[in-house]
Design a protein that fits this description.
With 312 residues, this protein is α/β, with parallel strands linked by helices. Helices cover 45% and strands 11% of the residues. Strand 4 and strand 5 form a beta hairpin. It comes from Arctia plantaginis.
């Protein structure tokens, strides 16, 4: 969907929500939704409705997401330009697996996760940090050379080891954190005063998995939110899932699991290489268009939005 929005700007157009919906229906097989649902999708993808100085409503991409995308794209470009020879490992957690253009799938990293909830519930709610960390540790042990690992920011990927206190913490815990970080405070300060100091001195996030990788000689790069198109394993899995769908006749979970392992086994290193090249081409194209982020405003027609969508 982000590519659809971006395509308007590449052509010098300012799209309305209705135009975005029309383009999505044209490009995405079987896609249908209402204007109100389209607005919700855009908000879920990191856009927000605001009010322009002239009083019109407009939709803008969140600044933090723009910054995360640019940071990611510039980092990957630096690796390519410097001819960094480290394998680039890409993770996915639909089936916990990893692979790269150099080796294809990494056999030791395979873990088929069985969710027990109904198909209407998100499997992400069942995956937890403990299980994923155990799998990730096995992955690190299986890597034969220093590598660059790309993963998203799912909650179980993102356990912080330097988490700053919040309003949920006791006042004494906040005071202890401030003292540990060498920040002056007085006994007369109230909890809101202390939290304000925490906010001003909040450290850069350090994630447990990133630290584990670093200690093993690897580097983790985080995908920007809502940008799964930069992860080539998504294309690899599309191939594997199509293979499973074409042979699935019983729809029994045990049979599907067998088919899945078979589908994984026929994904070649060349398939991986092609998918990585496609993702890298997309990254290069988006970086070249990054100047558009400064003007990334979608003007919303009066007849396809309402006041409930506006955030001030």
């Amino acid at each position: 969907m982000k590519q659809i929005v971006s395509s308007f700007y590449c052509n010098g157009e300012y799209p309305s929500t209705a135009k975005i919906l029309s383009r999505a229906v044209e490009r995405i097989d079987g896609f249908q939704c209402s204007i109100s649902s389209m607005r919700k999708i855009l908000i879920e993808l990191g856009y927000k409705y605001t009010q322009a100085p002239d009083g019109r409503k407009q939709l803008m991409e969140r600044t933090d997401i723009v910054c995360a995308r640019l940071q990611f794209l510039r980092k990957l470009k630096t690796l390519r330009d410097s001819e960094d020879t480290r394998p680039r490992i890409y993770l996915d957690d639909l089936v916990c697996h990893a692979g790269c253009a150099k080796y294809g799938f990494i056999p030791e990293a395979r873990w088929v996760f069985r969710a027990v909830k109904s198909q209407n519930e998100d499997y992400h709610s069942e995956m937890n940090a403990k299980g994923f960390t155990h799998w990730f540790t096995k992955l690190l042990q299986s890597l034969e050379e220093p590598s660059v690992i790309t993963m998203d920011n799912a909650p179980y990927h993102s356990q912080q080891i330097n988490r700053a206190p919040t309003s949920a913490n006791k006042k004494s815990e906040i005071q202890e954190w401030l003292r540990e970080h060498g920040i002056e405070l007085s006994d007369s300060e109230l909890k809101p005063d202390l939290l304000q100091k925490v906010q001003r001195n909040r450290p850069e996030k350090i994630y447990e998995l990133d630290q584990l990788a670093l200690e093993s000689g690897h580097e983790v790069i985080r995908l920007p939110p809502y940008h799964c198109q930069y992860n080539p394993i998504e294309l690899v899995w599309a191939q594997a899932k199509n293979e499973v769908a074409s042979k699935n006749t019983t729809f029994k979970i045990a049979d599907v699991e067998v088919l899945l392992h078979e589908a994984i086994s026929i994904v070649s290193q060349k398939n991986w290489e092609d998918c990585v090249k496609h993702a890298e081409k997309l990254q290069e194209e988006d970086l070249k268009k990054s100047h558009l982020a400064e003007e990334f405003v979608i003007h919303v027609d009066d007849d396809d939005s309402d006041d409930s969508d506006v955030e001030f």
